Amino acid sequence: MIINHPILGPRDSAEFTYMGDAALLDRPDWQAKDALAQFIDYGYLRDNPAGPHQELWYHEQGDRSFLVVTRDTTTHEISSVKLANDVARSRGRST
Amino acid sequence: MHNLTVTTALGGTEPRIDMHGPITLSEEPGYALASVAARKGGERATILAIRRLIGPAAPKPGHIAGDKVTAFWIGPDQWMLEAPYDSHETLFEQAAAEVKGKASVTEQTGGWCRFDLRGVGLASVLERLCPINMITFQPGGVTRSSIDHLGCFIICRALEHISILGPRSSAASLHHGLLTAMRSAY
Amino acid sequence: MSQINRLKGGQIDRSQTLNFTFDGKFFQGHAGDTLASALLANDVRLMGRSFKYHRPRGVLTAGSEEPNAIMELRDGARQEPNTRATTAELFDGLTAKSQNKIGSLRFDLMAINDRFSNFLTAGFYYKTFMWPAAFWEKVYEPIIRKAAGLGSISFQDDPDDYDRGFLHCDLLIIGAGPAGLAAALTAGRAGAQVILADEDYTLGGRLNSERFSLTDQSGAEWAAKTVAELNSLPNVRVMARATILGAFDHGIYGALERVSDHLAVPAAGKPRQILWRIYTKRSLLCAGATERPIAFENNDRPGIMLAGAMRSYANRWAVTAAQNVAVFTNNDDGHKTAADLHAAGVNVAAVIDIRHDAPKSQDYEVIAGGQVTNSRGRLGLTSVQVSLPDGSTRNLPCGALGVSGGWNPNVHLTSHHRGRPVWNDEIAAFCPPKDGPAGLSVAGAALGLFTTAAALTCGASQANAILKDLGIKQTSVDLPKAEDTPSRMRPFWYVKGCSRAWLDQQNDVTVKDVKLSHQENFISVEHLKRYTTLGHGHRSG
Q: pTM of the prediction?
């Protein structure tokens, strides 16, 4: 597969490490009342869609950035690639 | 007084040089390295500090800039500084003083080994090493990629001169990989 | 005298004589020969034993589709089993051994299996070796492995290096026949970054195997000139001995380059093979077509081969399998084989054409409306039995028979990424699907266009369409004039009433096995393949 890196352009997916569902970006608030239940969901439950899926790819053999890649799991078609940093900030997070 | 012998990454007292076909592979021990990573909010100040350190503007992604002291882009808001060791043994301290707390500076000299490839037809060697597109990889270009499972920086200094920076602890493996590719290509 | 089946002409270098051995016997061939062509030149038709029944087998094809002439090459640590004699380039000092036999190739003790063929039908292993379960590992498996195993390995460390590498291009052209060469010329002259890859060591595809001319030169001459021009262009990389083995996601292709397989020992520092990963913007499949046989009783004897292969041996390697040959065909293309062999001075006993309106010839007999119903000759063909239109039969002595059942486009790469080939009634074959790998176009015979003129034009026009997509300015290419006569054919798959008629010679699968599989409800092709083993092996998939 080729991942079109927002900064570096098309790169072979072999340079990346797959880091799982992009939902991992949204870490629950550890002080919430139902923090335990939320962390169980966060830690163990994953959707496994046949179709578009947002996932984290780490450019380990490259610039070391985390990317949020929207990939169709049935065709490997990649419809969007963003820096995870930008995605997190757009959700109002500081880092 | 201790009587220590300085050795290169490959363990010799002199840097190793291998010639094969049109290509020369040389071990380049004489460089100091320091990485600069902008802290949150310090991005702009870091860019200016790098400019003061190297002369020209801080390089954009995928590029290298500078003359005596050079900087190349290694990641978002991160650069590596490189300069001859003899004249810039204290590169790390110099950079740390310049960024004034707006960036984290790390001494990298002992972490890396550098090999330079010189000669006509380097593309035939590089295509056996990593997935860089040698048609578009031009002088001033820098990229990080995997060579024989080692994360390396590949720097195009001139059409017939490419530097490869790899982990120093795997210097012999990297050297073997480079030499094997040279022999396979020519 | 050695090389008694060597003809005049061909594209071999007679100034270089190469010595080699087969099963310990000493032979000579020439530079440019494959192991198969050199063996045929030396009147060796028996090249192997079949997988299950240990029937004597000879060469069937002249390319990578070969099921029978599977050998062990070299000795010592470099011994390599299961290698096709049809793609192995001859080199001085090559040692080759036949495999899958106990005793000698001529008197294989396992040939007894052939007598018990009624018990060894499809699904035999599944039905027989079921219990007791503990017997599987200790008793059944070792026996089956010994009896059905193919080549053997050396049990020594491989002394050679195998490399890998990465290439980038605008356009990857797969196959360097007329379509591929025309496409490469078009894209190359326009300045695109082009990679042209072909599995053969001499580029040109069937241009090297035919006698017709391109404008005023032979096909082989035009191919060689075109390759020379492509080699002179800095933006074109020509890769011979390189098989494109898969289409992967987002325009990545895998290629295996056999750098040193044609040498006794790789040059110092050089790898034996390189596995390339090719990053492409677009790709063009010009893989040509593969001839299909017609199944008839005992159609697997040494000397029975595809008609197109017989023609390749005569025209490219100046070799005939025998001095007296016949052709069995359902189409006009088969007649070309007879004409070419006749022109090369080989006696053509007859052309047996299933069609009543078969083309006639002044030079040899044409049996229109005839069918080959059986063959004779234990270790090599001696005659075929022909049923004539009036219902009588005739025994026709011949040492080799060329069989042509029409041609199938090589669609394989287009059916990666879930592409489903589309049936085409006109050529009675599957054609490339529209929903194959993204960015992959098809040209020439692989698209079902079987004349040379159509292949050349299609290659150039597909290349131009791709250049347009990539925003590269097109240039006009002067294509040579070539033959443009469509080959008529009548679909014909197997002779009625045959049972031990081989469909898959490598795995010993017969018409009867397929019928049995169907009867036992293994109907879908996947089940049929698993049950009968049809289509496993070198040509798997």
A: 0.93
